[in-house]
Amino acid sequence: MLALSRKPPASDDPEVTPVxxxxxxxxxxxxxxxxxxAVVVTVRTFPADQGFLVGATRTVLDAxxxxxxxxxxxxxxxxxxxxxxxxxxxxxxxAYVPEEHRAVAxxxxxxxxxxxxxxxxxxxxLSPPAVLEPGERTGGYRRGTGTLLxxxxxxxxxxxxxxxxxxxxxxxxxxxxxxxxxxxxDR
Length: 187
Description:
Elements: E1 2-5, E2 17-20, H1 26-33, E3 38-41, H2 50-67, E4 70-74, E5 81-82, E6 85-89, H3 102-117, E7 123-127, E8 131-133, E9 141-144, E10 157-159, H4 160-172, E11 179-184
Parallel strand pairs: 1-2, 3-4, 4-7, 7-11, 8-10
Antiparallel strand pairs: 5-6, 9-11
């Protein structure tokens, strides 16, 4: 497995090869992706840099389209509809996105729009729930489409470990939707 980054950290895992690649260098991105089975894009900036996020996503989509590689973009929850008001994006709902994170959420909405505008690439966009943090790997989660999911207690949360399971599940058994979301399974 390749781990592409501008400044990749060393890896102790013999199955992970860190590769330094600048997302602005289209040729380097395409060269790095040559021979890959799939690409998982996990780019976020804080403070928000919408131009970089959208540009990096487009660069990967362009290269993947030329190479015939599927792209799974792990984006943001901001692009989902609010469960309390289906006319409202989560990015605009202070119940889920505090003001100090709104620019990051809006950048995620722009990232999804860039994917939708890219008709040549085989892509899927995963919006995580409102809260993503380290936790326990249970292997359990619920899947949905365009609306933010919550658990029985009203929380929109998943562990990073279970989000990784959802990513692998999507790569191994793709769903029909181009935009989907997940939430921790009710326990």
